[in-house]
Design a protein that fits this description.
single chain; 158 residues; binds 5-nitro-6-ribityl-amino-2,4(1H,3H)-pyrimidinedione; alpha/beta; Rossmann fold; 18% strand
Length: 158
């Protein structure tokens, strides 16, 4: 068998940016708390965490792209909550948020993780924000940490 490459969950001097939508802030703030808690628990000092607030999930990609391309961060964590019941725009907002976040990551070559809840109801959203079904903010932060370490391993191949 060839070599297996993976990334751990240890934080050294990596710097993280969090982009969070203010729309549905009741959920978004829970995602931020969980993301920050996850970063801290893996060793990230508070001074290495920058949080940026944008109006809604639709605006996340632009801020994420700017942060990712700034050269100041090792990963960007995108958080928000889009609830279908509240808008006929649901599908457009979700699609653009997902596409734009992926695009920011590929263009900048740094991890930009997707912690945007897309749910049918407020109850489902709450379940994914720390009640019953995990917390998308914590997941997105853990994925960001892991990916910074995967990229460090990949850089050693070059
Ligand atoms: N933005 C969200 O983040 N979540 C939503 O559920 C939502 N709804 O329901 O409309 C939402 N809309 C705002 C959108 O993201 C933009 O901020 C707005 O269209 C201005 O560009």
């Amino acid at each position: 068998m060839g070599q297996a490459i993976s990334g751990g969950l240890t934080v050294g001097d990596q710097k993280f940016a969090i982009v969070v939508a203010r729309f549905n802030d009741f959920i978004g703030s829970r995602l931020v708390s969980a993301a920050v808690d996850t970063l801290r628990r893996h060793g990230c000092p508070d001074e290495n965490i920058t949080t940026v607030h944008v109006p809604g999930a639709f605006e996340i990609p632009l801020a994420a792209k700017k942060l990712a391309e700034s050269g100041k961060f090792d990963a960007v964590i995108c958080l928000g909550c889009v609830i279908r019941g509240e808008t006929p725009h649901f599908d457009y907002i979700c699609a653009e948020a997902a596409r734009g976040i992926a695009d920011a990551s590929i263009r900048s070559s740094i991890p930009v993780t997707f912690g945007v809840i897309t749910a049918d109801t407020i109850e489902q959203s709450l379940q994914r924000a720390g009640v019953k079904a995990g917390n998308k903010g914590a997941e997105a932060a853990a994925a960001a940490i892991e990916m910074t370490n995967v990229l460090a391993e990949l850089a050693r191949l070059e």
